[in-house]
Amino acid sequence: MSSTVDAAKRKVDEASLAAQDVAADASAAAQKVKDDPKGATQDFLHTPFMRSALPFINGGLAGMVATTVIQPIDMIKVRLQLAGEGVKTGPKPTPITVTREIIAAGKVMDLYTGLSAGLLRQAVYTTARLGLFDTFMGQLKTRAEAKGNKIGFGERATAGLSAGGLAAMIGNPADLALIRMQSDGLKPKDKRANYRGVGDALARIAKTEGVGALWSGAYPTIVRAMALNFGQLAFFSEAKSQLKDTSLGPRAQTLTASAIAGFFASFFSLPFDFVKTRLQKQSKGPDGKLPYKGMIDCFGKVIKDEGPLRFYRGFSTYYVRIAPHAMVTLIVADYLGFLTK
């Protein structure tokens, strides 16, 4: 009995000492934060968890900043893609006429319709794609260095394609809500959904059309994201690598590389973005059928009814939407990455 009591006392004493150590460590940590807040922050940023999480956090913040800046242009781009659906001839809308119509029908702030969905999409999609890209690039770099090699364009392209595809699958519901909110104003007033926000849009779509409907247009969304990321991330990374030995300063290199990436991202992804918009906007007609059966069917019908160049109508607007968004995203992400080194 005595030995049992002694053992119990020893355990209590050990627990007490451990608690005192923890309290001392906590007190020391608190004092360090007070004495050297910058150093404490740096220590926290260099914990294994934060080193893994930072690419995702920085990517999401960068994407949300860019979306807030670019949202009106995105609204005009979507309206341009939906105008004249199924008609090969007739007046062709321009960014200026579409902007006038939006403002005339409501107010200037209507250009920010769907901003909540756009921010949610960036919080999910851009967080994932930039975080995954940095993670994949880190793994590829480690593997290449172990073999005494350097990362080439092929590895950058693989990382961009993979990150884009996976992120698009995760972010499709928010992307769908964004398209629905932006296209709602094109419907007759008695048929508009008048979504109150992204949460309301997601809930009503899931309730009336089923949860699976939140992934409508997922296939072209994924292909578009892969094409966009191939053009954006792979060419940005490659351009920065090529510009390192030039006379340009770090900021000029980042700006130039992001402009190059924006062009290639626009060129490769616009046809898929066009089809994605059409598929996500469509609703059943009086016969209970959808206008398009899927991505291939949409491509075929647009080529037949509207002509192949229809996919690139509004390229200038799309470029003005994609290039600055890519530039702001990549520059902000680059800067956040520098701050959190």
From TrEMBL:
Transmembrane segments: 318-338
Pfam families, sorted: Mito_carr
Keywords: Membrane, Mitochondrion, Mitochondrion inner membrane, Repeat, Transmembrane, Transmembrane helix, Transport
Membrane topology of the entry: Multi-pass membrane protein
GO terms of biological process kind: transmembrane transport
Subcellular location: Mitochondrion inner membrane
Annotated protein name in UniProt: Putative mitochondrial 2-oxoglutarate/malate carrier protein
Native source organism of the sequence: Cryoendolithus antarcticus
